[in-house]
């Protein structure tokens, strides 16, 4: 019976702590935060999803025995709805509260839903200055009879507490939500949302002087959407919402809109007038719970309920009696020692969860890679050791050493001050907190743990008499006195709330030593009902002066309360990675790939070589190195066929020796010729000079395009199916160091693998890449809407944002830039293609508010395979590179001539990229438009006969005329006997290629799916 009772008490204490933990943080109410992650307005709007706008309230009026929808409203605290005053008024005066019903969480007017809460009204509070004839002060509060139950689908929005200057929101885009009249002039049964842009008062009045000139006041502002998007009848009282740093604020309340003549219905082509919530904050403040007010715009949005599972609140902060290998008492189990490569203690940190520790940022400045953290003891101890003590067996447990995964220093930390000297350290692998000597301390994340008291403080100190680390009680010291002492010592404290000061009692000073130093934790003892005593982290030593030997000198500690939101904001959910298990999965994936490659019907998978793809090239550069991406090529185009000057025009991604991918939007119709340069093509004048006078191996390769296949459903206007497959004339030379294909996730196991890294190369792609993190479609669409960008996503789009939130500027992406994901395959880590930049050149660079948008290449893998040919892996005999030296080169094509233009101003000749063919010692044949240097209007009769000023010396073997088919018996039209010859400037030799029927066909511009050939012959 006693055992059962004990079990019930333990269960009760666990439940009590869990229930306590459900509070949304210490003494605060969270506002403006969505709880539902949906993937997916008002007039011409789009449907809103459950939980998408959890603060929207639907207000109904009771008419007879029927509830009729009347207005919208916004939840602003646990029992208050913000709406328009005219929504609770009739011609006869204020509506009785018994005739009003408020529905929360409703997205459909008639459907029954478990998400919906229905509330009766206790009180109506109308602004005392409201004038029903002029819409002046058209704002009201509805007090509910019972408190709202907050859920995933019902949440309060934040009131606008920032600058109330309307000029700051003019030109900005907010979101309007409501059940107003739709395009058929009937109440919309589905909740709608629409993007609304704010305009200045003068623009609003000019648009309709009759409606706005005598109605608009300084407490109102105007807004409207595009293409007849507006508020309408039934949207009154609803909010106009803006997002600031991830938090939603209500700035406007729908007041009035001009009506169409003789209808009494809204005119959606007109602007809507909104009551400006910011102008009424003083009046609202006296009727609401002030804990929802956000006055610090830098405050981080933290969902406490979402973050609580990061902590084991049932075991944190519990003291355990453990010993060290020498038999001495072990320190409290959350203490971690930061060790250098020389095994010296640099500072100490405090374990707050299995994945995270917290300490001073200055300890980890510039040296985190050379540090490790040791838990459970002062030095490494690898085996458990047990011995007898007072008739009891006690054991020393092995210490735990952990590498540092990431250090997140506070953004305001500077080595020149002591302020904001705090860092959150993520471990490479989790601490084993199932062991009694390694346990996290509690963080004050619940009201029970967040006491705001200063009576029960202690620190970890070294006791000289016993040679052990003990829990030393300390006294709190007045902050003003502490500040004055430290100013004298040369340490300025900018913000008293961010620090705590304590001192060791005078009687303990002589027996206390500051052996631990910087980072020593300041702890609070908190007694839990039926859960025992817990240790809660309240701070840590900034200067390493704990037990400095003088009780008159207070010790300065970081106040954890002031950084709690910042810490939680930067903590994330991690899963322990078992290296052995990860290796098994990676090996199984590789085996599955090899099996699929050999399967019947999967022959085209042999086009992809997993053994050599997806590996970057690391190139030494000075004292460091740079990373080169070998699968990226530059698309070169000729826009002017006369000058034939090539210009960069987007990027391509090599996926095997014969094929590359790019975005379809890079292929502009005005381009006459395209080619590709693969490899490291940064200009090297020394190399180019060497190649001019001899044989050399350039680090790049210029290749011609044989065929471009654009997706048949590509739509440039809507940016749909923005992808193209390129077939090369000759194979990429993958023996070159800087040329290699990216890997393609051709099997499901690869596509489902966990990404280790997500990167996109910048325009200067050989030297810079930007690390990204995925962005869900909902938030992506909203970010575009906030930038007033009419960009529609589809199920084949991928969004991402920079992982580095402090990045000074976005990446400068070219069209066709690849989204690369790092996967583990077998024993290797390789980069796989997962997307192509959907935008044209530098769109993100010029629009820093945009998220990155990519075409999801995984959705087009089957289409790629259908358009790829197996013979693409073999270099065909029809393409022959001739000549290895300067003399041998020209002997292979002795009739080939290069046209140079004399530049008199510089007294030199310049190669015009025009060629002629010698047909006799006096004559040559060439292209008329090239030789005449006139703009070409077509290809008809584009031929010229060139008479030389002096005859060519045809007695030399490298200068000989070609034969002309003058005699009928030698004239032939058989395609199989024809060949074309080009001169490769990149390698200094001629390339002869046989002609087939496809090369005789002109580019098929009528077929959106295929352009062949791309270079008009």
From TrEMBL:
Peptidase S1 domain location: 42-289, 324-572, 599-869
Keywords assigned by UniProt, alphabetized: Disulfide bond, Hydrolase, Protease, Secreted, Serine protease, Signal, Zymogen
Regions crossing the membrane: none
Keyword Disulfide bond: yes
InterPro entries: CLIP_Serine_Protease, Peptidase_S1_PA, Peptidase_S1_PA_chymotrypsin, Peptidase_S1A, Trypsin_dom, TRYPSIN_HIS
GO cellular component: extracellular region
Entry's localization field: Secreted
Pfam families referenced in this protein's UniProt entry, alphabetically: Trypsin (PF00089)
Single GO term (MF): serine-type endopeptidase activity
GO BP terms in the entry: proteolysis
Family matches, as SUPFAM superfamilies: Trypsin-like serine proteases
Major localization listed first in the record, in broad terms: secreted
Signal peptide bounds: 1-21
CDD domains for the chain: Tryp_SPc
Record-linked PANTHER family: CLIP DOMAIN-CONTAINING SERINE PROTEASE, PTHR24260
Family in the record: Belongs to the peptidase S1 family. CLIP subfamily.
Protein name: Peptidase S1 domain-containing protein
Organism: Anopheles melas
The organism's taxonomic lineage, starting at the top: Eukaryota, Metazoa, Ecdysozoa, Arthropoda, Hexapoda
């Amino acid at each position: 019976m006693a055992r059962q009772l004990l079990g019930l008490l333990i269960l009760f204490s666990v439940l009590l702590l869990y229930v306590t933990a459900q509070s949304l943080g210490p003494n605060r109410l969270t506002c403006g935060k969505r709880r539902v992650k949906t993937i997916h307005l008002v007039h011409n709007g789009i449907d809103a999803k459950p939980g998408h706008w959890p603060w929207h309230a639907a207000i109904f009026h009771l008419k007879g025995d029927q509830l009729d929808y009347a207005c919208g409203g916004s939840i602003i605290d646990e029992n208050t709805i913000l709406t328009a005053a005219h929504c609770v008024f009739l011609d006869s005066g204020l509506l009785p509260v018994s005739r009003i019903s408020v529905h929360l969480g409703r997205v459909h007017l008639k459907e029954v839903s478990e998400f919906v809460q229905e509330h009766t009204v206790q009180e109506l509070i109308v602004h005392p200055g409201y004038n029903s004839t002029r819409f002046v002060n058209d704002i009201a509060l509805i007090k509910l009879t019972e408190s709202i139950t907050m859920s995933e689908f019902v949440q309060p929005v934040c009131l606008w507490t920032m600058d109330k200057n309307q000029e700051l929101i003019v030109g900005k885009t907010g979101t309007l939500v409501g059940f107003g009249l739709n395009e058929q002039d009937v109440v919309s049964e589905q909740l709608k949302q629409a993007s609304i842009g704010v305009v200045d008062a003068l623009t609003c009045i000019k648009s309709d002087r009759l409606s706005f000139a005598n109605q608009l006041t300084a407490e109102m502002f105007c807004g409207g959407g595009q293409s007849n998007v507006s508020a309408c009848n039934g949207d009154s009282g609803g909010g106009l919402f803006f997002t600031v740093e991830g938090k939603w604020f209500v700035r406007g309340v729908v007041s009035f809109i001009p009506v169409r003549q003789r209808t009494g219905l809204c005119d959606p082509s007109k602007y809507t007038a909104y009551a400006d919530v910011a102008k009424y904050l003083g009046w609202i403040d006296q009727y609401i719970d002030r804990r929802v007010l956000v006055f610090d715009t830098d405050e981080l949005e933290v969902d406490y309920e979402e973050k609580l599972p990061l902590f084991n609140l049932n075991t944190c902060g519990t003291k355990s009696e453990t010993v060290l290998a020498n038999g001495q008492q072990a320190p409290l189990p959350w203490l971690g020692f930061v060790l250098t490569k020389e095994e010296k203690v640099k500072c100490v940190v405090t374990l707050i969860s299995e994945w995270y520790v917290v300490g001073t940022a200055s300890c980890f400045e510039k040296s985190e890679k050379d540090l490790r953290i040791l838990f459970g003891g002062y030095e490494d101890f690898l085996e458990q050791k047990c011995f007898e003590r007072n008739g009891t067996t006690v054991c020393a447990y092995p210490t735990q050493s952990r590498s540092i995964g990431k250090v997140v220093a506070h953004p305001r930390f500077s080595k020149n001050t002591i302020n904001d000297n705090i860092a959150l350290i993520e471990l490479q692998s989790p601490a084993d907190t199932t062991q009694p000597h390694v346990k996290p301390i509690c963080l004050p994340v619940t009201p029970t743990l967040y006491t705001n008291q200063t009576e029960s403080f202690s620190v970890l100190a070294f006791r000289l008499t016993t040679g052990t680390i003990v829990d030393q009680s300390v006294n709190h010291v007045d902050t003003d006195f502490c500040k004055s002492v430290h100013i004298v010592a040369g340490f300025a404290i900018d913000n008293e709330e961010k620090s705590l000061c304590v001192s060791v009692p005078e009687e303990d000073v002589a027996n206390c030593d500051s052996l631990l130093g910087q980072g020593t934790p300041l702890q609070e003892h908190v007694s839990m009902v039926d859960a025992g005593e817990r240790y809660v982290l309240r701070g840590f030593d900034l200067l390493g002066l704990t037990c400095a030997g003088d009780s008159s000198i207070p010790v300065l500690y970081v106040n954890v309360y002031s950084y709690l939101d910042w810490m939680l904001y930067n903590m994330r959910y991690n899963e322990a990675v078992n290296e052995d298990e990860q290796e098994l999965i990676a090996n199984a994936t590789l085996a599955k790939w090899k099996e699929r490659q050999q399967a019947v019907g999967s022959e085209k998978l042999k086009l992809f070589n997993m053994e050599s793809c997806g590996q970057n090239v690391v190139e030494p550069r000075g004292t460091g190195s740079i990373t080169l991406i070998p699968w990226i090529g530059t698309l070169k185009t000729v826009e002017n066929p006369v000058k034939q000057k090539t210009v960069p025009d987007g990027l391509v991604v090599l996926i095997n020796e014969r094929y590359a991918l790019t975005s379809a939007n890079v292929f502009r119709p005005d381009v006459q010729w395209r080619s590709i340069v693969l490899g490291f093509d940064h200009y090297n004048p020394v190399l180019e000079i060497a190649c001019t006078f001899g044989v050399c191996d350039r680090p790049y390769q210029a290749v011609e395009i044989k065929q471009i296949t654009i997706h048949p459903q590509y739509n440039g206007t809507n940016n749909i199916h923005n992808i193209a497959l390129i077939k090369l004339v000759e194979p990429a030379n993958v023996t070159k160091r800087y040329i290699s294909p990216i890997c393609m996730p051709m099997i499901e196991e690869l596509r489902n693998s966990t990404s280790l890294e997500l990167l996109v190369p910048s325009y200067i792609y050989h030297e810079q890449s930007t690390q990204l993190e995925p962005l869900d479609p909902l938030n992506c669409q909203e970010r575009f809407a906030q930038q007033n960008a009419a960009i529609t996503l589809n199920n084949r789009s991928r969004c991402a944002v920079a992982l580095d939130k402090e990045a000074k500027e976005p990446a400068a992406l070219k069209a066709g830039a690849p989204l690369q994901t790092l996967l583990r395959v077998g024993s290797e880590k390789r980069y796989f293609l997962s997307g192509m930049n959907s935008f044209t050149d530098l769109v993100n660079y010029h629009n820093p508010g945009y998220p990155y948008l990519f075409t999801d290449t995984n959705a087009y893998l089957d289409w790629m395979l259908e358009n790829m040919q197996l013979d693409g892996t073999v270099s065909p005999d029809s393409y022959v590179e001739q000549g290895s030296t300067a003399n041998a080169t020209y002997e292979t094509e002795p009739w080939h001539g290069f046209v140079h233009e004399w530049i008199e101003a510089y007294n030199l000749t310049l190669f015009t990229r025009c060629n002629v063919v010698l047909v006799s010692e006096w004559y040559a044949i060439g292209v008329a438009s090239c030789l005449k240097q006139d703009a070409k209007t077509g290809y008809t009769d584009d031929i010229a006969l060139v008479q030389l000023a002096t005859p060519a010396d045809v007695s030399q073997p490298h200068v000989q005329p070609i034969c002309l088919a003058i005699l009928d018996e030698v004239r032939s039209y058989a395609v199989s006997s024809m060949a074309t010859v080009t001169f490769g400037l990149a390698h200094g030799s001629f390339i002869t290629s046989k002609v087939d029927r496809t090369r005789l066909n002109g580019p098929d511009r009528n077929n959106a799916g295929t352009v062949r050939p791309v270079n008009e012959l």
